[in-house]
Write a structure and sequence with these properties.
The chain is built from eight helices and twelve strands. It is α+β, with helices and mostly antiparallel strands and 271 residues long. The strands form three sheets. A four-stranded mixed sheet has the order 1-4-6-5, with helices on one face. The protein has a four-stranded antiparallel sheet with strand order 2-3-7-8. The protein is globular and about 60 Å long.
């Protein structure tokens, strides 16, 4: 079975407070985009090893056992004693970018295993499993615009008026870990209510839709600040860093110019 895990952007991100469990309470809006990985899972009946995982595309560093696709399989295997499988992930979504590629791969692994082995898990079941894997994994179970609270796993439907707009996403060479991003954060109450801002057209967002991570990250990485400014110079009506970075995106009323971006990884699409 082959599926194509997509990525997301954050429309605003407020870090409101530090929780007693060590995490932070946030509010944000997740919006899916179609910059996608390729994920294949096939039963490997009779294999001695429960899971064989291989990778291609963008190199993935670290131990393969730490990959979220593997963790998703292990999570379901603990309860359902799954047959052995082969997993192949062709990585296209940049890592350390704030685009949620790893979380999407994990969520899609859950959905694929549910289908392949007929586990009959409903959406609520899948959301619970996904929340155990990462704060934004649950979003990719729903995979439509969501207002997120808690650690990012408390979701509710939201309408965001983006039909007919274009998006351009640019990923610089820098990767930013979530830990690094949170080291520069001082939790606070937002000045503007996210839900109210998002009811407005994107032309209204520039002065009101805020990503709290930008304050420290743009100072530390001038190239990210420069790319955000570059998006406005190309005609974006709104530009922001996605999540904890390092990718930035611009929203445009017409197809954006992508000239002189060859040194960066970038993506554009029409909503």
């Amino acid at each position: 079975m082959i599926l194509f895990p997509n990525s997301k952007i954050n429309l605003g991100l407020h870090v409101i407070s530090k929780r007693s469990d060590g995490f932070h309470s946030i509010e944000t809006a997740f919006y899916p985009i179609q910059w996608r990985d390729i994920l294949e899972i096939t039963p490997h009946l009779g294999a001695k090893k429960k899971i064989k995982v291989t990778f291609s595309g963008i190199p993935i560093n670290g131990n393969s056992n730490d990959n979220l696709c593997v963790k998703a399989y292990q999570l379901l295997d603990t309860e359902y004693l799954l047959p052995p499988v082969r997993i192949h992930l062709h990585k296209i979504i940049p890592m350390g970018a704030g685009l949620g590629g790893g979380s999407a791969d994990a969520a899609f692994t859950l959905k694929m295993l549910n289908t392949i082995f007929e586990l009959n898990l409903n959406e609520e079941n899948l959301l619970n499993y996904a929340s155990n894997l990462g704060s934004d994994c649950a979003f990719f179970i729903k995979n439509k615009a969501q207002y997120a609270q808690g650690k990012g796993e408390v979701l509710s439907d939201i309408y965001i008026p983006l039909e007919g707009y274009w998006i351009l996403v640019i990923k610089p060479q820098h990767n930013i870990s979530t830990k690094e991003a949170y080291n520069g954060i001082f939790p606070k109450q937002p000045k503007h209510h996210l839900m109210e801002v998002l009811k407005q057209k994107p032309e209204y967002w520039k002065d009101f839709l805020i990503n709290d991570f930008e304050e420290s990250i743009l100072k530390k990485y001038p190239v990210i600040k420069s790319l955000k400014e570059n998006l406005y110079s190309r005609g974006a009506v709104y530009a922001s860093m996605s999540g904890s970075g390092s990718a930035v995106y611009g929203i445009f009323k017409s197809e954006p110019d992508v000239s002189n971006l060859n040194e960066y990884i970038f993506w554009k699409e029409l909503f």
